[in-house]
């Protein structure tokens, strides 16, 4: 693979250090990559608001793909563009089907600018841009639009949740989980990190062969499989490992920065 034009990275568990900070080594690596002509794109399950909560990262981003690929966000201008959303009627039917299999589930809906969750979510998220409603009906009414549906179970793993609803009628919605953490995300049909990143790249005439991607969780797997070169983090979920072309060190070891430094060193050596 030639020098990439785009570095696409998941954030939590991948680009960000444990605790959610951006290490000095990673900042330096991103700055050097951009100075060498590479674009940096965050590809995340976070909302645009969640990206804005990382002020140390924003100066190093050329763009962001949010909500698992359903939104393209420009942090420099604040422009939010929704690529795919979920029809409210379909979302309600999917939630009802899930509730039958997971009676302990708590639901939330992202609408592109905010998140509305059932009241039990309040204790989980604390002060944030979340809003709350007493039940699922109130959640959908208050959200008005659904870009992503979140499902949480306190006493189940994400893998257990996914298995429990594997044959439920979800109307073709795209589903992903986070392994041990008891949460699922549902997006519109075909909306995943590969779709969102491919959209961002296509508009800039960049093909997958010029993209290097990093991730650690099952929701990263489509992006890791799409990119010409991709790295699962050292402690990544097996689904991410299977989709990637290589492995990086963990986020605690600045694994993304290590790979970027290697790319820049190889580029320097080739030019010598």
TrEMBL record:
Keywords: Hydrolase
PROSITE patterns associated with the record: COF_1
Annotated organism of origin: Glycomyces luteolus
Molecular function (Gene Ontology), one example: phosphatase activity
Protein name: HAD family hydrolase
Record-linked InterPro entries: HAD-like_sf, HAD-SF_hydro_IIB, HAD_sf
Signal peptide coordinates: none
SUPFAM superfamilies: HAD-like
Any one cellular-component term (Gene Ontology): cytosol
Classification of source organism: Bacteria, Bacillati, Actinomycetota, Actinomycetes, Glycomycetales
